[in-house]
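hi! just following up on the protien thing from before. the input was this:
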Amino acid sequence: MNLQEKLRQGKFVITSEVTPPKGIDTFELLGETEALKGRVDAVNVSDGKSSVMAMTALALGHLLQEKGFEPILNVSCRDRNRLALQADLLGAAALGMQNILVLTGDYASMGDHPQTKPVFDLDSIQLLRAIQMLELGQDMGGNELRGAPRFFAGATVSPTPGTVVASELQLLKMEKKIFAGAKFFQTQAVYDPVLFAKFMKRVEQYKVPVLAGVIPLKSAGMAKFMNKSVAGVCVPQEMIDKIAKAEDKTRTGIEMCADLINQLKGMCQGVHIMAIGWEKKVPQIVGAAGI
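and the predicted 3d structure came back as:
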């Protein structure tokens, strides 16, 4: 049973993510990823995350697929025009990858090649519409395809962006993405279950699976940095204080993340664990959550 079928049947799913290496050596990365087998339902493969140059997500996704994982291929609009985006999507389909997470992408100035000229030929909504056209057997120019792909396309949303205006904007974008073909959503990191519950109440009308993003805290410094620098993330002070006072911060971070997952479990259709260097600890987090 694949990810789409599990979500259709209402199963609570767990996804995680891996970041392609800066280079061609995937031995260590694939070895570490083995720990996720049997603990997650699918694995996101990031695409130029934080505008840092790395191996193409398409290549690593294929390698993960050969290892028995179900990849969710992240596709960012930042670096490619509509020709290249459509070409990569057709290539992914030909390799048997159907799960696509559509992203507009971070600004190039944030990454390790700040002189890069960003493309942004399409935004995430336009790319979702392009995927619909490909599935109908045509490219964006109206030309017929020799064999139409089938995708399970998703998108992202920030459920607790901080202000009323920002929240309404996120809901409007989410609605547009659904109309453009998004079949599931993965969210920005959630730390406040109460606020997330209010968000889920607002979007239940759409009847689209939502996977809540969770990022385990490693330190109070990390939490403060996210509050200051990561849009749409707000770590409550009580969580910052708890990790700051903990003698064993790793154990506390895992326990806090597991507790958060349990609080979110009844509100959404799954969680997306963004481990950020703690990929080896994802099985511990899932185990501590009793999933």
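The first helix runs from residue 3 to 8.
The CA atoms of residues 20 and 55 lie 5 Å apart.
cheers
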